[in-house]
Amino acid sequence: MALHLGIVGLPNVGKSTLFNALTRAGAAVANYPFTTIDPNVGVAPVADPRLERIAAIIRPERTTPTTLRVVDIAGLVKGASQGEGLGNQFLAHIRNVDAVAMVVRCFQDENVPHVTPELDPVGDMDVIMVELALADLAMLERHLERLQSAAKSNPRAYAGRLAACERGLGLLARGTALRCANLDDAEREALAEVDLITTKPMLFVANVGEDDLPGGGELAGRVSARAQALGAESIVLCARLEDELADWQPGEALEMLAGYGLDATGLQRFIWAGYHLLRLITFFTTTGGHEVRAWTLRAGQTAIEAAEQVHTDLARGFIRAEVVAFDDLDRAGSIAHAREQGHLRLEGRDYVIADGDVVHIRFNV
Questions:
Q1: What confidence tens digit (pLDDT) does each residue in 157-180 have?
Q2: Which in 82, 110, 184, 280 has the greatest CB count within 10 A?
Q3: pTM for this entry
Q4: C-alpha closest to that of 36 among 69, 76, 4, 5
């Protein structure tokens, strides 16, 4: 399942530093705008203590975490919707992701110039959100023109889509992101015909200096308050510190972070927030004693979709799924004991996978 979380922001806010920390992909980092031109795509492993516990129970030859796909997109500037900076190229890249993480600069560094003389994180957030809304406004206007032309021959058939489009234009013109609008299912379906950016879920990331950890300081507080007012989530991290710690042993990194009053890395909190943003869950498979592996699904997906995620042959020959909840397996201490205690269930293809399910697919070859 190729779901992508796009990392966006103004130039020189720390997007590529965060991306490198997440993926160890070596994206170019420099203190001038548009170092990133083409989007960098990478995968970030998702640390999950449940995987470690299942591995301690099963004792496989190897364990494989699931991953989150992240995209580092070029910096946006004021006027991008009119072609400034990388303009339409940037906007095309952001339309291709499933959710957006906006990195906001909350650190002082005289060696890294900012696009404005003074740091104003809320102003920076508004610049980007206005540009995204203007880009959607222009795209939706063109879509409305096409609908109006098509509706001439059959007005009744297009009435609902036209009304939804006109409402969307009105909301965007008033500065309301469509993700925040109270749209009904028919309106959402009609607007989904257009690849609009402001319908995508958004996370705000306050990138702070080390001295401002753990809370982030006054500037990060502004980001949090603005995100809350928008009904969005926000997290605080120091991308530079995370990039340094990414190559450390986990125990040593956590010991260092404890000195900052943190009990988890910013990368872990970013990935967990991205998971929540994309409405993702994790399930686990065990392959005899060979491998314990974590997999990603969208919340609400079924056993047959889980089978297909693992391998198309499993979905094609699906018979049933053996399922045990992680908590039950954890308490039982083994698959055999979980079965004896009645926690191992046989489920059909339409069973909705729950977060933490340990699944074994029975199938015909």
A1: 999 999 999 999 999 998 888 998
A2: 280
A3: 0.84
A4: 76
d(CA 304, CA 136) in angstroms, rounded, equals: 36
Residue matched to tokens 């001038």: 32
- For residue 37, is pLDDT > 70? no
pLDDT at 82: 52
How many whole angstroms separate alpha carbon 100 and alpha carbon 11? Answer: 16
Contacts of 142 (CB under 8 A, 6+ apart): none
